[in-house]
Amino acid sequence: MTTAQTQQPTERQAEARETFDSLNPATDEVVGTYPVHTAEDVEAAVARARTAAGWWNDLGFAGRAERLRRWKGVLARRLAQLCQVVHEETGKPHADAQLEAVLAIEHIAWAAKHARKVLGSQRRSPGLLLSNQVATVEYQPLGVVGVIGPWNYPVYTPLGSVSYALAAGNAVVFKPSEYTPGVGRWLVDAFREVVPEHPVLQLVTGFGATGAALVRSGVDKIAFTGSAATGKKIMAAAAETLTPVLIEGGGKDPVLVDEDADLEAAADATVWGAFSNSGQTCVGVERVYVHEKVYDEFVAKVVARAEEVRPGSHPGAHYGPVTMPAQLDVIRRHITDALTRGGRALVGGKNAVGDRYVQPTVLVDVPEDSVAVREETFGPTVTIGKVADMDEAVEKANDSTYGLGSTVFAKRRAMELARRLRTGQTAINAPLSFAGIASLPFGGVGDSGFGRIHGPEGLREFARPKAIARQRFAAPLKLTTFSRTEKTDALVAKLTAILHGKR
Ligand code: NAD
């Protein structure tokens, strides 16, 4: 299936004007060429989506669930092909591409299966005074949702919004990252195979300007996943039209290791959480706070494991290149700042950052105000700090503008510590487990954003509650009329005193 075969007319027009190349970050080889969609192209896509949205909504929960199930079937059957596109555009190993695709398939399945239960009409109590009414609430689709995605998990991350928005009855216009347009193209083409009637899910490609045009296009909501800096721009632009936004921003996720933790498991999770996907994971491990009683033993275990981790593009490599070349400078700056301010590299360090690959880097004794501790590094590095007790660990973990995910390794105090962490989600005694549980909501606090994808909350994020009060019979007490009597008012006052006036 070539790109040209699957393009829509407006996309071909745009291609005649301007295109951009998608490169393999391991080789710089061009793996695809895509149109830079203009504001007019985006508006046209949104206009088509409006018509499609009505048709899609009319299919009802069962009809949509059926199509979504077929879509996930295509993804599951052609998993290897999809993973190849992800591998070429991001550089990540096939197995990692497969992991994110499998989780995305789980989410499509969950959203399709649960949409009716979560969003369908539900009865509510009308209360005593209005007991002549039937009160119901149902969650109706918003209409057209614009989804703007990042490159680091180009299947799992945007589908966390796309699948839930579709299951809720919306049409979607999807703008993938300029680093992974081919993955976006593949997903949208697969959807079109199972929903050929109307453009319910469309693709627009390009850079930030195309995303900005989508924000201003009159969509009913923008679901954005990317950096906090871009999130702020999107929110400011969306404010002009009061377009609601869901912001899934970055993170600086901490791991807490208590004195009674399973240190083998904690070290393994730290190394995988920090280095897998070349550290380019929004909920990747960037900081660790360890109880002083187990600090030395934990650090030794992390170092031993980290020394075995190998980046590269060869079979068996643990992670690939840094996908976005500009990130190399950020990673280098963070390591340098940590080292010049008293930090020590136990693995990797000063020369860890190469032309494409970054060696795993374990930093200790890094001051808390170093950029390596405060800013999102988005590279295969981790800082490990020693704490006197877990209260200090919680305080340091929470001292961040970000609040996306967190992990606790502990026995006795695990739940308490998890509750006290100011993050949208916390995994206990396993890395990133929340991300694979489709029924759990996912989202951030502070600079990590707001709103939730996944689970019932993720479905409701793409719907508006519609309240309906239907009168079953005329009320014995007529309250909302000018012919209300003094006797009625007196009775209401008496009833209220009985119902609510107890001391
Ligand atoms: P980015 O902010 O640079 O870009 C994200 C998307 O926004 C891209 O599609 C880009 O073209 C578009 N964009 C850029 N400027 C825009 C503008 N002015 N208006 C509208 N759209 C615009 O982020 P990135 O580098 O692609 O992704 C990495 C970031 O994403 C990291 O910070 C990471 O933590 C975060 N992330 C968060 C989650 C999450 O679920 N919270 C998941 C994955 C990645």
UniProtKB/TrEMBL annotation:
<dbReference type="InterPro" id="IPR016162">
    <property type="entry name" value="Ald_DH_N"/>
</dbReference>
<dbReference type="GO" id="GO:0006081">
    <property type="term" value="P:aldehyde metabolic process"/>
</dbReference>
<protein>
    <recommendedName>
        <fullName>Aldehyde dehydrogenase</fullName>
    </recommendedName>
</protein>
<keyword id="KW-0560">Oxidoreductase</keyword>
<feature type="active site">
    <location>
        <position position="248"/>
    </location>
</feature>
<dbReference type="InterPro" id="IPR016160">
    <property type="entry name" value="Ald_DH_CS_CYS"/>
</dbReference>
<feature type="domain" description="Aldehyde dehydrogenase">
    <location>
        <begin position="15"/>
        <end position="468"/>
    </location>
</feature>
<dbReference type="InterPro" id="IPR016163">
    <property type="entry name" value="Ald_DH_C"/>
</dbReference>
<dbReference type="InterPro" id="IPR016161">
    <property type="entry name" value="Ald_DH/histidinol_DH"/>
</dbReference>
<dbReference type="GO" id="GO:0016620">
    <property type="term" value="F:oxidoreductase activity, acting on the aldehyde or oxo group of donors, NAD or NADP as acceptor"/>
</dbReference>
<dbReference type="Pfam" id="PF00171">
    <property type="entry name" value="Aldedh"/>
</dbReference>
<comment type="similarity">
    <text>Belongs to the aldehyde dehydrogenase family.</text>
</comment>
<dbReference type="InterPro" id="IPR015590">
    <property type="entry name" value="Aldehyde_DH_dom"/>
</dbReference>
<dbReference type="InterPro" id="IPR012394">
    <property type="entry name" value="Aldehyde_DH_NAD(P)"/>
</dbReference>
<feature type="active site">
    <location>
        <position position="282"/>
    </location>
</feature>
